[in-house]
Amino acid sequence: MPSSQSESDYIRTTTQNFISRSANLLGASNVRIKGKSIVQPNVTIHGDYGASVHIGRYCYIDEGVVIAPTVVPISSDPMLPGDNIGSGSSSTQADDGQSSSPSSPTTTPPSSNQKAIHLQIGSYTHIGSNTQVQSLSIGSSVHIGSNCIISPRSKIYDCCIIEDNTVIPPDMIVPPFSRVRGSPGRIVGSLPECCGGELLEGCVDDFAVFVRRVLGKDAGNGCW
């Protein structure tokens, strides 16, 4: 969380989102944030790829995060241009944890032979600082640490923890209640069912703390 904050540093929407004035919402008409979410400084959200980015309620997007839709080829004809973003040899994470090392994705708009895929990020999800997201979807009650790479075509289901510095390779599917770590990311454990409620409460608490610091009022009072 930035060390110095004031209400003037943020745009406050009618649905009580707080968007840093130094955040970049490119193609803002394609970016939908449901409410009571926080977008911190130097965040870039790419709604300019021709696909929508939907973010749920009570999400916290920390400083330096880049969010972009997955880009895929329109045609499978190898003679046509348009390699996929972040393409390369990388296998889906298997239950036994075997996966090849992924390449770091680049955020490049789709070419004439590519298209972007709608990106959905569920409610009560935290994305840590300097993380890159290009997945197909991220569920609700997900905690993604700092300095992570969530590669193209990957999916993270509900109630997961992605630890700091993790690289989720392209095409990896993270099932619900998983803990993921490493580069490439591997499922290293499962989470108890109560974890979903704890992650939800954590995001609600983060919003309340933010409101108290920035506005000097309790998030439970008035219009909150």
Shape: globular
H/I helix tally: 1
SSE topology string: EEEEEEEEEEEEEEEEEEEEEEEH
Relative helix content: under 10%
Strand content: 25-35%
Radius of gyration, in Å, reads 18 Å
Largest sheet: number of strands, sense, barrel closure: 9 strands, mixed
Explain what you see.
- This protein is mainly beta and 224 residues long.
- 9% of the residues lie in helices and 29% in strands.
- It is built from one helix and 23 strands.
- The strands form four sheets. A nine-stranded mixed beta sheet has the order 1-2-5-8-13-16-19-22-23.
- Strand 22 (178-181) and strand 23 form a beta hairpin.
- The two termini are 21 Å apart.
List keywords for this structure.
nine-stranded mixed beta sheet; six-stranded parallel beta sheet; 224 residues; 1 helix; mainly beta
Brief synopsis:
The protein is mainly β and 224 residues long. It is built from 1 helix and 23 strands.
Q: What is this structure's SSE topology?
A:
Blueprint: E1 10-12, E2 18-20, E3 24-26, E4 31-35, E5 38-39, E6 44-46, E7 53-57, E8 60-61, E9 66-67, E10 71-73, E11 114-116, E12 119-121, E13 126-127, E14 132-133, E15 137-138, E16 143-144, E17 149-150, E18 155-156, E19 161-162, E20 167-168, E21 173-174, E22 178-181, E23 186-190, H1 195-215
Parallel strand pairs: 2-5, 3-6, 4-7, 5-8, 6-9, 7-12, 8-13, 9-14, 12-15, 13-16, 14-17, 15-18, 16-19, 17-20, 18-21, 19-22
Antiparallel strand pairs: 1-2, 10-11, 22-23
